[in-house]
Amino acid sequence: MIEDLLTFFNYEKIYHFANIGVIPCWLLLIFLPNHIITKFFVKSIIIPLILSTAYLFIVYQIFLGENLFDIFGLYLGLDNLYAIFSSEAFLLIFWLHFLALSLFVGNWIVSDSAIYSIPRLLVILSLITTYFTGPVGLIFYWIIRVFYSRKINYYD
């Protein structure tokens, strides 16, 4: 049974499930940010737990088949980073990392925007930008937040 499960969850399927799985989370953050369903699925530990389980599964697969310590070569230059990204497993790990962190940032934007009463349209634009570009969306939100909070905090 475990062998069947391991053959079912190949890298391509994990990639598709992760991509499709986060879209409802982003839609909930955009359209129903304070709904109980959003709080249960998106603002809880459920999605990070699922993504981290996939992450650990891939790390385990790398441990079985490849050299796990190759990942430290990414700090040595762009050629090494390119070589690491040529591995499906390492590329998928970084993609899951991006999905999880972007969703975390989206959660933070929704929570923080409620504190400063930022208009929904600006929050939605920030969330969409964060979904597609990650850190650029965070900076976009931060600039909006500065105008609504009338102060600049570098450590919030």
The string of secondary-structure elements, in order, is HHHHHHHH
Gross morphology is globular
Helix/strand/pairing class, anyone? mainly alpha
Number of strands: 0
Profile the largest sheet: none
Let me know the average pLDDT: 88
Write down the Rg. Answer: 18 Å
Helix content: over 70%
Spatial gap, N to C terminus? 47 Å
Low-pLDDT segments? none
Beta percentage is under 5%
Distinct helical segment count: 8
In short:
This protein is mostly helical and 156 residues long. It has helices at residues 2-8, 11-31, 36-41, 46-65, 78-85, 88-115, 120-133, 135-149. It has a domain at 2-106.
Please give the structural blueprint.
Elements: H1 2-8, H2 11-31, H3 36-41, H4 46-65, H5 78-85, H6 88-115, H7 120-133, H8 135-149
Helix pairs in contact: 2-4, 2-6, 2-7, 4-6, 6-7, 6-8, 7-8
Describe, in plain words, how this protein is organized in 3D.
The protein is mainly alpha-helical. It has a domain at 2-106. 76% of the residues lie in helices and 0% in strands. Helix 2 (11-31) packs antiparallel against helix 4, helix 2 packs antiparallel against helix 7 (120-133) and helix 6 packs antiparallel against helix 7. The protein starts with a helix and ends in a 7-residue tail after the last helix.
Task: Give a quick set of tags describing it.
mainly alpha, 156 residues
